[in-house]
Design goal:
311 residues, alpha+beta, four-stranded mixed sheet, three-stranded mixed sheet, 9 helices, 11 strands
Length: 311
């Protein structure tokens, strides 16, 4: 769904223009004004979803950054309507509720993951439909699976082919993993969930992302941490150490003399992308000083001499 097109707007539309466009369309397609009209019902759902995204600064930023396809992989219906009270919005526009003393047939469903926020909009007693509205088509069960991805997948994006088993049957699905994906995010595959009753639509498949630990790097937001151990002598005198980035590029990094344990040296722009169209974070070389557990005789004598010099 292209949200700006749905509301008849350009991408440069202001907050007030977005609100004005939604109010105009809501007046036209609200169920209290279109008793039993299925086409108007669907149109009202789509314009409300568009407004839920474009009226929220963070969701709008994500949508503008990633585009429609990647946004809908990152945001489920539950995510889109989270913290969006459509009853209050419609009351502001004069639809039923407390402002006009009437009763709107519109009600938001605040159920759990995968809940359809429009599942009880129409025909809920005494509204404009007069109890004659069609009920939404039954929907199959939404399914959630865990999808493991590597840091390399986060860096480059990936396409994963997954074999799923559900209710004794198996099927293969393909999903695009966008660059910069974070652990815990869900990718939505519409219509790839459980089968629906006759006349209904299949449920959706949600893939909850888990980023597997890497042997060499630790993720910190959009940055990567690479731990480099150096001997005490190099910490005192300085050194150059070899560092390899996640994509295999090699650097010689200068460790300044007198560096303290757990100090970090930055290689700018070699972290992870913040998103498919965003720049990358940084790679930090976290320097640790190796303290030997055992010393040979010569090393012990040398350390004792250093101790005499206050080192």
């Amino acid at each position: 769904m292209e949200y700006y097109e749905t509301l008849g707007l350009s991408k440069s539309a202001s907050t007030q223009e977005i609100k004005k466009a939604y109010r105009k369309l809501a007046l036209k397609y609200h169920p209290d004004k279109n008793g039993g009209n299925k086409e108007a019902e669907e149109k009202f759902k789509t314009i409300s979803e568009a407004y839920a995204v474009l009226s929220d600064p963070e969701k709008k930023r994500q949508y503008d950054t990633y585009g429609s396809a990647d946004f809908h992989q990152r945001y489920s219906q539950e995510d889109i309507f989270r913290n969006f009270n459509l009853d209050d919005i419609l009351n502001q526009f004069g639809f039923g509720g407390h402002s006009g003393g009437g009763h709107s047939t519109f009600r938001m469903n605040t159920g759990g993951a995968g809940a359809n926020p429009f599942s009880s909009i129409f025909g809920q007693g005494g509204g404009g439909c007069g109890g004659s509205c069609q009920q939404p088509a039954p929907k199959g069960q939404d399914i959630t699976y865990q999808l493991s991805v590597s840091l390399e997948d986060v860096l480059n994006g990936a396409e994963k082919n997954i074999a799923l088993r559900y209710n004794g049957s198996s099927k293969n699905v393909s999903v695009k993993v966008p660059k910069g994906i974070e652990a815990g995010k869900k990718l939505r595959l519409k219509g790839k969930g459980g089968q629906a009753p006759p006349g209904g639509v299949p449920g959706d498949l949600y893939l909850k992302v888990d980023v597997t630990p890497h042997q060499r790097y630790t993720r910190d937001g959009d940055n990567l941490i690479f731990e480099q151990r150096i001997p005490f002598s190099q910490a005192c005198l300085g050194a150059k150490v070899d560092v390899e980035t996640l994509e295999g590029k090699k650097f010689k990094v200068s460790v300044p003399a007198g560096i303290q344990g757990d100090s970090k040296l930055r290689i700018k722009g070699y972290g992870l992308p913040a998103g498919p169209l965003s720049g990358r974070g940084d790679l930090f070389v976290k320097v640790g000083v190796d303290i030997p557990k055992e010393l040979n005789e010569e090393q012990r004598e040398t350390i004792e001499k250093l101790q005499g010099y206050g080192l």
